[in-house]
Specification:
heterodimer; A: alpha/beta; nine-stranded mixed beta sheet; 18 helices; B: alpha/beta; five-stranded parallel beta sheet; 5 helices; globular
Chain lengths: 533, 138
Amino acid sequence: MEKYNWETPEKNLINEPHKKLPISRLATGISGLDTILQGGLVQSGIYLIMGAPGAGKTIMANQVCFNHLAKGGRVVYVTLLAETHSRMLRNLQTLDFFDPSSITEDITYISAYGDFKKDGLHGLIELLRKEIRQHKASLLVLDSLMTAQAVSDAEVDFKSFIDQLHVYTEVNGCTTLLLSPRTNQGVLAYRPEYTMVDGIIELDDALEDERAVRQLFISKLRGSGYLRGRHPFTISSEGIVVYPRTEALLAQPSKIYTESTERRDFGIERLDQMLVGPPGSSAQTLLPEPGLVANSVTMLLGVPGGGKTILGLSFLAAGAARGQKGLLFSFNETPLQVVALAKGLGLDKFGEWVAQGLIQIIWQPPLEEILDVLAERLLNRVREQQIQRLVIDSSEGFSQSIHPERITRFFTAINSELRALNVTTISLVDLRELFSSSIQLPISPVSNIFDNIILLRHVEVQSQLHRLISIIKERGSAFDPSLRELLIEAGGVRVGNSLGLLEGALTGVGRASSNPAQATINQELSKTDQSFE
Amino acid sequence: MEPLTVLIVEDEPSINEMLQTLLGEEGYKVVAAANGQEGLERLAELVAAENKTDAAKNGGSLNLLILTDVMMPVMDGRQMLKKIRSTPAYEGIPVIIMSAVSSFASISELGRHVFLGKPFEIDILLKTIHQASAGFGD
């Protein structure tokens, strides 16, 4: 056995304090929660899980227990006038994490009510101390704390109970979850358990515009940073899944990016040329692959029927032809409708590319979706499948989800991450006004969110409707600012000549130009256009 | 053989109580004090009682170990240890200093001691006590 050298006591150092070691954590194993907690709960801490009945406290605690067991941990689950263990376990059987075979000597469910009734908080702390030590527990759950508090004679007794629990759990390296119903927030702030625990996780189930949404909120966490704010969560057969609030999660993109030199095309020659410079410019002739800057985000703004979806599908098809993976994140047409539409446009191989996974489609109706669930679904697919081209049809699907007031910050965050992942994103945005002298952008301010804006409108010329396409903005690139006709034909999509002889076309009603200088410009544009014919 | 006596000097009641309970359960004889002054008083009583034992009369070592905090009211752990080290009757008693402050770790004037950083797990404490008491008298 090692002996200490008494002649050099300064070397007899055990468990040196304040040595900057990584924080030991107990991973909850709950998807999203460990991300919010920056890796998990700090080991040996005491955490209060609060929420109204039905908020998910018991499921969360058991999910942490079973995940901890799976990693070789040992658990003591103590109840105080809560539901019976058999009833609780029966209710857990529908959840994927529940594994009856893992209920061995490594997890102990006990009722402490007898000792508590007999000897009060002293009896309870004695029982907890003995059980932790006997079972060498690394995780303790006490359900419910309210029972213990309700019968304690004085607040000081309850404080002493929490204090002793701290000491015993710390020396045993045991992390503790205290489950408690939520009470009045104002009163709660002064309660001993609120001030003395290491962390507080609040579970909430609230109505937002008549839609029920569960949210998790960490109001206190000692010894670790965490993602602040409310984070939605769901309870399904998977148990609890938490979706970190996108703006908090992506406050910094996953990598630093610079503007790409690569371009990605629509497969529509004149449109791709418009995206690199005015007609006849050197960029149009020098750039080997015209199109959008690879890691850019484009707002494709247009009226219904203006050709947004069609341009989006053309963009994905052009990528697939080059072997680039694309994703259509759709709130509108179903996958079958999309493939049929593409076929009608002459994109004959679209269905084949979908079958091969070169073009992928995620479809969901824009009904009860939560912004952060959508964000995770989208980004997971982009990351897992290394998607290079993304079309969102349409951004309205996000706006109709729960918490639409977050939409500007949400798009800022998600678009920044998509740029970092070198994805070329086209977000279709619905323009409400079919014919109007002004345009109301449904998302603003757009400059932080979108790099490029392409506008699609109808224009009436001599009692005939024409589709117009124009580039309003393209970050870091010259572009052709002329208004051109977008022609959707059985054989595909074309961009036609400039409509230079018209004035006021963007208002929806075009008039012949009376300006001689404009007429000269238009003549020059027409000459350049002829070279495309 | 008589069990080792552990003198716990700790001002934090919950920690003091926890150490008494856990060390008692491990078979140690436990005496507790809430500060350095009380620690010296308990130590004097313990040594007086020890000196009456047959082992002590035959020249044996004191079967005693001090487990002390540093920052305490009335008299802190450093002052207490200085007094202990200047008292020949207490020579050779092993000391475990418990503290969350690492600057207390290498104070040579405190003589023979082991420094145990707080927070610690009970198994580490038990191992430290076991080794420190085994090293006593070398």
